[in-house]
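S.,

Sequence below, as promised.
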Amino acid sequence: MMKVLLIYSPFCTPATPPYAIANIYSFLKVNSVDVDILDLNLEFHKLKFPKEYDYYRDFILEDYEEKTNEFMKESSKIYSENNKKIVKGEKPESFDELIELIRSKKPDLVAFSVVYSSQVFYTKALIEELNKEGIKCVIGGPAINDKLKEKATFCNNEFELLNHINSSIKPNKAKVHDYIDFSSFQDYFIKEKNKVLPIKTCTTCYYKQCAFCTHHQHTCYYEFPLEFIEKTITKNNSKYWFFIDDMIHEKRLLQIAEIMKQKKVIWTCQLRPTKFSKETLQTLSDSGLKMIIWGVESGNDRVLKLMRKGTNKIEISQILKDSHIAGIKNVIYTMFGFPTETKEEFIETIKFLQENNEYIDLVSTSIFGLQKGTVIYDRPDLFEIKKIHEKKRTVLEPKITYDVESGLTNEEATKLRQKYKKTIEKINKYPKTMNFFREHMLIID
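The prediction came back faster than expected:
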């Protein structure tokens, strides 16, 4: 029987087990595949950052900001240096150790799950070495690009992977796993008893309207059975859960809340701030929902309408207030520099955050970046983008920049965010660096 090894490459935050690999592992196991896993992202960080690993296994809030700032600064430097080595064709740090870990498993086939573009570099280097050794490689995930497809076989989903492993099993004949098994994932940058496990309730976002989003590309919306969610929670015996769906609608949330309350677990999720009543938020809080990550994006109604968020600032304010009163921590996503956003509208968002300061626990800011597959990329004229530029890169997909007819440029938005940095940080009730390890915020009483 073919022995399959699932790999998760560096670099991303090693706070929780990777959902994609856990899901594929569980699917292959139920279909009688001899499969094992290696989280090389975790292994790299344990090799390179042993002191930080020990710290995050038992951190304290008093020095969290200082320690995490140091870790972010050092890790960013190391990520960049090693990615540059790979671009130059040089061997990156810990490469021999990581390759040896793969060899020790004696796989016939290595399958890489590439979720973030930051993982492309090490994935490329590892595949090139494995190809030299005659080990077959397969790739999949949202960050796969054409350059990686030249080096390994691409599988679009777990059914294609299973058929590649065993051609006698057709996708429509495959068994479907009834829960996700996280038992093989241990020793993350968090105390083991506080381990936060990721879970999904559906295949993609049901809303599918946001103009800047690519997450729902070519994916049909399908809700996983509630029994699947319940069994996953029961079998893994973890107290903390992170629902990583982009969004979950109210009816579904309340069904999940019933399960979570019965299991006596603590959980968090990501939501769009619209149409949640006080009663619903209180029910969610009573079920163990401790934190919500809200896609607020802007405090200006014109910008929100252009984004196609389906929200407005009055409703957002009320939901944040009601959520806070219900005892839920509010983490806020904001996006600056959306095409046509003016300086005045930028400042309106800052004022919106200040006005709702009492109800906000942590602010996470970003600068808009144009991506292929979005409404904005396909119809730039609707967003007053006059020209799109694509610059080729050695490993990654082309870098996309753009020129605007009106509003802030990307550079101007970045400078403004820096100018109001301290103003934004004053709103935070928790260390701002918890945006790097958001799972840590869930386990704090």
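Residues 3-170 form a domain with the Rossmann fold fold (CATH 3.40.50.280).

Coffee later?
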